[in-house]
Design brief:
single chain, alpha/beta, six-stranded mixed β-sheet, 6 strands, globular
Amino acid sequence: MSQPGSQKLVLIDGNSLLYRAFFALPPLTNAKGEVTNAVYGFTTMLLKIMDEEQPDLVAVAFDLPTPTFRHERYAEYKATRQQMPEELGPQIEMTRQVLEAMHVPVYDLESYEADDIIGTLASEAEARGFRVLVVTGDLDELQLVSERVSVMVTRRGITDTKVYDPAAVRERYGFTPDKLPDFRALRGDTSDNIPGVPGIGDKTAAALVMRYGSLEGVLEHAEEVTPRRIAEALEAHADLARRAKELARIVRDAPIEFDP
C-alpha cells in the first residue's frame, strides 16, 4: 500500500460502463450462446484501469432494478428511458461474478443509485486523505470533482476517455463542479427526465449560474433577468427548478460505510 495521503481509490460506475460496453461492441457470445459483449468490454476496461492507474483500492457500484428516493419525489424520474436491452440484463449478474472472482468489492443500496454510493464513498475517502478516481460514462458525476477527486468519463467506445479535474470542469462549463446541479436544474436533463425551466438551454443556464452563483441566486434575481420571457419562465417555474436541483444533486451521505 502507498503511504497515507497518497493512496488512490478507484470507484467504478458499474451500470454506466456496462451500457457503454454493450453498445460499443458486437454481440459476442460464449460457448453456451449467451451474449457476453458487455461483460467482456467491462472487464477489458477494468483491467486497463487497474494497469494504468495502479490503484491501492478499487470498488464497483451498481444500480438496483427498484425505484429510488428520486422516484418517490418525482414519479416521472427517468420515465422516458428505454427499457434495458434483453441481452444486457443477464450480463449484469455475469459481471458481478467476474468481480467476485477478482475479489473486487461490489456496492449497491436500496433506494439509492450507483451515483449516490460513489458520491458517499468518494466524500468519505477524500476526508481520510485518499485520492479518488471515479470512472463513469455519466457527466452528472462531474459534480463530485474536487482537488482530490477526479472523474474519468468514457466518450466513445470503451477506450476513448477524458479525465476531469476542477480546471477541466471549469473549462468545459465555465463554473465550478459543485454548480452542476444548479445548471441541470435550469436546463433540465432529458436522459433522466428531469424537468428544466422552459426556454432555458445550455448557454443561458451556464450564463445564469456564472452570474448569480446558484439556482437560489438566479431565482432571487429573476425579475432582473433578460430577456423578459426568461424572467417570466423563472418566476413561473421556480418550484419545479428547486425540485429539479434536488433530483440532480448526488447524495454524499448515503447509509453506507467506506471501509478501506
